[in-house]
Amino acid sequence: MKLLKSIAVAAAFVPMASLSQAGDPAAGEQNFRQCASCHGIASPDGEVIQRVSPTGPNLWGVIGRQAGAYEGYARFSSAIVTAGEEGLVWDEESFVAFLNDPSGFLREVTGDSRARSNMNHRLRGSAEDIYAYLTQFGS
């Protein structure tokens, strides 16, 4: 229950207009360039959409995935693993809030004022568009 309440508080990081608008996958593909130095997109059968980097986890199937949980990737912060264990799953609201302020979002959802994300980059551009782009890959 604490996590759900915290997610509602974290929604304050998301502009209200973004909650009512769907993102644009084509714009998200362009904006994904900001993500590509650390993240890739590759299907389980080996189809590579975006070269996978060892820095960040593969984002194939990230939408609907438990936060801080990707088999074979061990560099998640303890805060994101805790949030995932407490029930955080990447949906549009949580994904957009996280991209806008990774550590701030984790502080809100975990209730830990010292929580930090290993992702230091704050997105420049439309997180909603990147979300729409990533919904195409995986279940």
Q: What's the rounded overall pLDDT mean?
A: 86
How many DSSP E strands?
2
- Percent helix: 25-40%
Estimate what percentage of residues fall within beta strands.
under 5%
CATH fold type? Cytochrome Bc1 Complex, Chain D, domain 2
Cα separation of the termini: 26 Å
Q: Quick one: CATH class?
A: Mainly Alpha
CATH superfamily: Cytochrome c-like domain
| Low-confidence runs of at least 5 consecutive residues | 4-21
Largest sheet: 2 strands, antiparallel
Question: If you compute it from the alpha carbons, what radius of gyration comes out, rounded to the nearest whole angstrom?
Answer: 14 Å
Report the total helices. Answer: 7
Give me the side-by-side strand order of the main sheet: 1-2
Number of domains: 1
CATH architecture: Orthogonal Bundle
Overall structural class, as computed from helix and strand content, comes to: mainly alpha
Characterize the overall form: globular
Order of helices and strands: HHHEEHHHH
